Here is the input.
Amino acid sequence: MAEAERIIGTPDIPEAAGQDEAGGETASPDEKPGKGKRKILVLFAVAVLAYALDLVSKMIVVAKLEHHEPIEIIGDWLQFNAIRNAGAAFGIGEAFTVIFTCIAAAVIVVIARLARKLYSMPWAIALGMLLGGALGNLTDRIFRAPGVFEGAVVDFIAPKGFAVFNLADSAIVCGGFLIVILSFRGLDPDGTVHKD
Here is the structure.
């Protein structure tokens, strides 16, 4: 029996050798979960950074700028002007504060669930920005006046001829823009690339 196996040989199993059928490298079973954990750490690190910057900036604005004249950064082209926004990003839909609060909470839940199958670094960064921005504005919705889930968001970045916004809005827009680019390039959150 041993002699027959020696003569016939055993079939090559590419997966066991760390290669796919085309000879390309594949991740070993132990390798991919480790990489996934690193991407999750990046996601939450970006989210914490975006959230912290938004929170600190709003604290400074409320303490130093609210009820004061706008501060000119680049003439009248860019000013810091503290306002309270009950609507969505850029002052849209002020009558639907509770709905926007629910949407922000839903986005956070979706991102947390998506993180479990995340193996793409660009997606980790994009989702981290979305998560940090959503948490930043959700914090305002919960803890600021006029009440829980109806709080007005602190906005202060005021470009000329454009809506006033904050760092959380910026993180959400940048994260969303990056997701659009990744989707057009065919890169999925799990790291696979598909070409139509």
Remarks:
- The radius of gyration is 24 Å.
- The first helix runs from residue 2 to 8.
- Helices lie at 2-8, 14-17, 31-64, 97-114, 121-143, 167-184.
